[in-house]
Amino acid sequence: MLFSPLVDELVESLRCLPGVGQKTAQRMAFHLLEKGRSGGERLADALAGAMTGVRRCETCQNFSDTPTCGLCQDPERNTGLVCVVESPSDLLAIEQAGDYRGSYFVLMGHLSPIDGVGPADIGIDLLLKRVRQEGVSELILATNPTVEGEATAHYIADRLADPVGGRQVLITRLAHGIPVGGELGYVDGFTLTHAFRGRKPLAE
Q: Residue 112 pLDDT more than 70?
């Protein structure tokens, strides 16, 4: 044992973060102990507060410290338009783009039978209940363009295939394809396949 048990525990605790290995965790721990004790104390307080105070919004499942998050409480949001994403980071990316003014539903994951993740684990029943009860007119499936993301999108679409309360809900999927400024020679086959399937007439 090169260091005290407290230092070793700090290093091991930092390794729970994604992309943080042994060396990176050691550098973080040594920095906090050598030069950043005030920052470390603030970090500890913030972690303790977040771990006990952050919950899931009862409407959209996004992170919130109140029963209903700020986005769901915003009266200027179009509640008839719901965008389904896999994670809060996906929601943040859409918000930062600045063009979408509808509401959200955060799955906090995707369907993965191999990992034992089923519809109940990601709140699909809550989503379907919301669509039926709140008069949602369009559901945008913005799950990631991965095998699991596609399977999740198709599952949700299949569950809503029949009219809801005598009305048909429009189900749309985010377009996937070649990024603006990209060159075909550098685009992977999976992206090219989606681009061909999602092709549309050239606007005049």
A: yes
